[in-house]
Amino acid sequence: MSWDNIDIYLVFDMFMLLLIGMGPKIALVPFIDLTKELEPDMQRKVAQRMVKTGVTTAIILAVLGWFLMRLLHFSAGAANIAGGIVLLLLALHMLVSPGRDDHQSKASGRDAMQMALYPLAVPYMLNPAGIAALVIASTEINSLLNGILLLGLVLLVGGLDWLVFTNMNKLAKFLDPSRLAVTEAVFGVLLAALAVQLVLDGLHDLGIVSILTPH
Fold this sequence. Notes:
The chain is an all-alpha fold. It has helices spanning 8-22, 25-35, 40-72, 76-96, 100-107, 112-125, 128-139, 144-165, 168-171, 177-205. The chain contains 10 helices and no strands.
């Protein structure tokens, strides 16, 4: 993605990438499972810490992603491939295992505020697709306006996360578990497709494969 010419399509594409990469959908079921035994006040505190941690990490990646790439000597293609592989594992887990027993085992005996950091903030809320997108976008910022736009989109998606997760005790009554399981499976397929695309884009950036763009 190039930031040379900002237009509505570019803004929309980046917004959709961030909505997938740090929006509420992937973290929704794990958050419900890990916090369902908590009192509403504690659940809200966990949500606040989760969102603050995820958004703060996203901002750091948006600002310093270019520096991290140069410091650790990896390319945008490598970031895409790594993000795609990890995202594929996450998507497969959503498909082959609902994860509820796994979530409950993770919650057993653990401090709720620590779970807000891991696994809720990362890798569920800020997932591998979001991390790869932010790191790569950071390297393509060439003006103050571009940087402000990227940070604005991060904060916009973070605001959506805040509204959803801090009001989960009110929203939970409208969330049917069976429907959530179906949507999680469907979204797992879509994430798997996105993961494969990230890997292909990375291989293309590295000159290993050639991708034909349909007209």
